[in-house]
C-alpha cells in the first residue's frame, strides 16, 4: 500500500501524464503476494486501480483507451497475485502441519531428557540438518535402570525416513535391554542382533553406550563412534576405545567384538558424547569445528549452559546452518550436596 501511494504521489508531484505512471501501480499487488493474504492483496489492488483512475482523470486529454488498458492490466495482476497468495498460504499450512507431525515424532522417538537422572545432571542439544523436518538420524537416550543410569548416543548411516526408522529401532531395543541386561556388553549384543535381522547389508549405526554401575566408575562400549570427551576440572581427555569395534550392524564383517571400558568418574567430572555432525562441521575455510578445544572454553557446573555455548558457537562456525545432524549430550556428576532436589 505504501508503494502504491508513493507512485500516485510521484505522479501528482511531477505533473507527468498518467500513462507513464499507471504501469508502476501493478508493483504494489505483485509484491503483496509475497507475504499478504488474498483479501489483503485485493485491497492493495483496489487501491492501485482507484488511484490510477484518479491519475488518468487528472491527466485528461487523449490516450484514455490506453489508460483503461493499463488499469485493466493492474486489475489482472491483482487477481493473479491474489491466487498466488492463496496457493502460498496453502503451502505454508501444509508445511506447518508437516512440522507439527515431525515434532510429535521427534518427541516420541527422542524423548526429552530431564535435567537430572539419578545422581547426574544431564543436558542435550540436537539439531537436524533437515531443519524443516526437525528430525534426523542421530539418536540419544538416558534411562535409569536397576544397574544404574545408562545412556546411548549414536548416528545412523544415511538420512531421511529410513534413518529415522533405524534410529527408532535402536532406541526401542536399547530402552528394553538396558533394563534387562546386567552387563553393558549384553545391551550392545541385543541391539546388534536386532539390527542384524532388520538392516540391509550396507546399513549400520555407530554408537557409544555408557553406564554408571557404581560410585566412582563409568563403563563405556564404543561401536565405531567418535570417542567421548572426559571433562575434568582442568583438562579435557578424548576417551578412545581400548580395542576398535565395528559399528552396530556390521559385526558379521569383522572378528572384533565390543569391549567394556571402565573409567574413573569422580564428583565434578563430566562426559560429553556427540555425533560426527559436530566435529565434521566446517566453516567457509573448510576447517573442522575444534570441539575438544571449545569445550574447555565453555565448561561450567551447569551442563545446559555448557551445551548452549557450544551449540551457539557451532552454528556461528558453520554460518548458521548445519549440513549434517548434530547431537550433544553432557553428563555431569555433581558433588552429593549439590544435586538439585527432585
Fraction of helical residues: 40-55%
**C-alpha Rg (nearest Å):** 30 Å
Major sheet characteristics: 6 strands, antiparallel
What is the number of beta strands? 11
Strand order of the largest sheet: 1-2-11-10-7-8
Strand content: 15-25%
Overall mean pLDDT stands at 82
**Global outline:** elongated
The sequence of SSEs as H and E is HHHHHEEEEHHEEEEEEHHHE
Tell me what you see in this structure.
46% of the residues lie in helices and 19% in strands. It has helices at residues 2-14, 18-21, 27-35, 38-59, 64-109, 160-180, 184-198, 276-279, 291-298, 303-318, and strands at 116-117, 120-127, 138-145, 148-156, 205-214, 217-223, 229-231, 236-238, 261-264, 270-274, 326-332. A hairpin with a 2-residue loop joins strand 3 (138-145) and strand 4 (148-156). Helix 1 runs parallel beside helix 4 (38-59), helix 3 (27-35) packs antiparallel against helix 4 and helix 9 (291-298) packs across helix 10. The model has no long low-confidence stretch (mean pLDDT 82).
Brief write-up:
The protein is of the alpha+beta class and 342 residues long.
Q: How is the secondary structure organized here?
A:
Layout: H1 2-14, H2 18-21, H3 27-35, H4 38-59, H5 64-109, E1 116-117, E2 120-127, E3 138-145, E4 148-156, H6 160-180, H7 184-198, E5 205-214, E6 217-223, E7 229-231, E8 236-238, E9 261-264, E10 270-274, H8 276-279, H9 291-298, H10 303-318, E11 326-332
Antiparallel strand pairs: 1-2, 2-11, 3-4, 4-5, 5-6, 6-9, 7-8, 7-10, 10-11
Helix pairs in contact: 1-4, 3-4, 3-5, 4-5, 6-7, 9-10
